[in-house]
Specification:
By secondary structure, the chain is of the alpha/beta class. It folds into two domains: 31-194, Rossmann fold (3-Layer(aba) Sandwich), CATH 3.40.50.300; 198-268, Helicase, Ruva Protein, domain 3. It has eleven helices and five strands. The chain has helices at residues 31-45, 61-71, 90-98, 109-125, 142-151, 170-176, 182-186, 199-212, 222-232, 236-252, 260-268; strands at residues 50-55, 76-82, 129-135, 162-168, 188-194. A five-stranded parallel beta sheet has the order 2-3-4-1-5, sandwiched between helices. Helix 5 (142-151) links the parallel strand 3 (129-135) and strand 4. InterPro entries: AAA+_ATPase, AAA_22, ExeA_AAA_ATPase_DNA-bind, P-loop_NTPase. Pfam families: AAA_22. Residues 47-191 form the AAA+ ATPase domain. This is AAA family ATPase.
Length: 284
C-alpha cells in the first residue's frame, strides 16, 4: 500500500504542491519571471560578458537558473559555483573545480589562470562556449568581484570566449554599484532585479501550483490568499511555506478548503517563521 504524502491524498493531489525544493516543472511564469528569464537568454545569445540577476531570498532565482540549465545544449559548457568565498587565487580554484579541470597541489595563481585560459580557448576552438554561473554571488568580496572582472580579460576580438552570470540577493547590486566596481559594472550588459509578487500574481501562483499537482486551483479562498500575500509580501518561497502549513492545518481540521480562519490558526500557533526579518524592498 502506497504511503500517503501528508495532505496530498486528502486533497486529491499527486504530490505536495508547495515543497521548498526548486523544481523547474512547477515554475510559475509571472510577467517579471518571464522578463528575468528573457534577460538570461539574451545575455547568453548576445554574448554579454556579464549578466546580473538579483532578487530577495526566495524570489525564484535558483529555479530560473535550473530552468535555464535545462534548455542549454551541448555546445555550452557550464560551471556552476555556489557560495564561493575566499581571497585572490581561491576563486579561480572554485572555477576550475566547477569546470572539472584538474588542479595540481602547489600550483601558483599564474599557473591556474593559464590552465583556465587554455581550457576556455580549447573549448572555443571546438565550437563550444564557456559560461560561469555564480549563485549567491553577494557573498563575494570586492576583491573577489574584481578577480571575476579580470577573468573576462580572457576574451579578445569580437567573440566572447567566457561569459559570467552573477546571481544574488539585493546586496549584490550594492556591491556592483560601489564606485570601486565601475569597471565591472561597465561589463554588465544584461541585468534584471526580481521583485516580490503582487496580489494577483500570488493568486495565479498558488492556483498554478495546485493545478500542476492535480488540484482544482481553488483550494484556497480569496480571503486566505490575500492574507498569505500580506504575511509573505509575495515572496515565492515564503508563499510556499505558508501554503504548505495551511494545507496541513486544513487536512487536520478535515476541511477541503483553506480559509482565512485556517491561516489565522497557522499564524496564532507561530509555526511559520519565514516572514520574520523580511527586509524592506529597496527601490530599484
Amino acid at each position: 500500500m502506497a504511503r500517503p504524502i501528508l495532505y496530498a491524498d486528502y486533497f486529491g493531489l499527486s504530490e505536495r504542491p508547495f515543497a521548498l525544493q526548486p523544481d523547474p516543472s512547477f515554475i510559475y511564469w509571472s510577467g517579471q519571471h518571464r522578463r528575468a528569464f528573457s534577460v538570461l537568454e539574451f545575455g547568453i545569445m548576445s554574448s554579454a560578458p556579464i549578466t546580473l540577476i538579483t532578487g530577495e531570498i526566495g524570489a525564484g532565482k535558483t529555479t530560473l537558473l535550473r530552468a535555464l540549465l535545462d534548455r542549454l545544449d551541448d555546445h555550452v559548457i557550464v560551471g556552476l559555483i555556489s557560495n564561493a568565498q575566499g581571497g585572490r587565487g581561491e576563486l579561480i580554484q572554485w572555477v576550475l573545480n566547477a569546470l572539472d579541470v584538474d588542479i595540481e597541489p602547489g600550483e601558483t595563481y599564474v599557473q591556474l589562470f593559464q590552465k583556465l585560459q587554455e581550457f576556455i580557448i580549447g573549448e572555443y576552438a571546438m565550437g563550444r562556449k564557456v559560461i560561469l554561473i555564480f549563485d549567491e554571488a553577494q557573498n563575494l568580496s570586492i576583491e573577489g568581484l574584481e578577480e571575476l572582472r579580470l577573468l573576462t580579460n580572457i576574451n579578445s576580438g569580437k567573440d566572447e570566449l567566457l561569459q559570467l552570470i552573477l546571481v544574488g540577493q539585493p546586496e549584490l547590486r550594492d556591491l556592483v554599484l560601489n564606485p570601486r566596481m565601475r569597471q565591472l559594472a561597465q561589463r554588465i550588459t544584461a541585468s534584471f532585479h526580481l521583485t516580490p509578487m503582487d496580489l494577483p500574481a500570488t493568486e495565479h501562483y498558488i492556483s498554478h501550483r495546485l493545478r500542476h499537482a492535480g488540484g482544482s486551483g481553488e483550494e484556497f479562498t480569496p480571503e486566505a490568499i490575500a492574507e498569505i500575500h500580506q504575511v509573505t509580501r509575495g515572496i515565492p518561497r515564503l508563499v510556499n511555506q505558508m501554503c504548505d502549513f495551511a494545507m496541513l492545518y486544513a487536512w487536520s481540521a478535515e476541511s477541503h478548503t483553506v480559509t482565512e480562519q485556517i491561516i489565522d490558526e497557522v499564524l496564532k500557533d507561530q509555526v511559520f517563521f519565514g516572514a520574520h526579518g523580511i527586509p524592506e524592498e529597496k527601490p530599484a
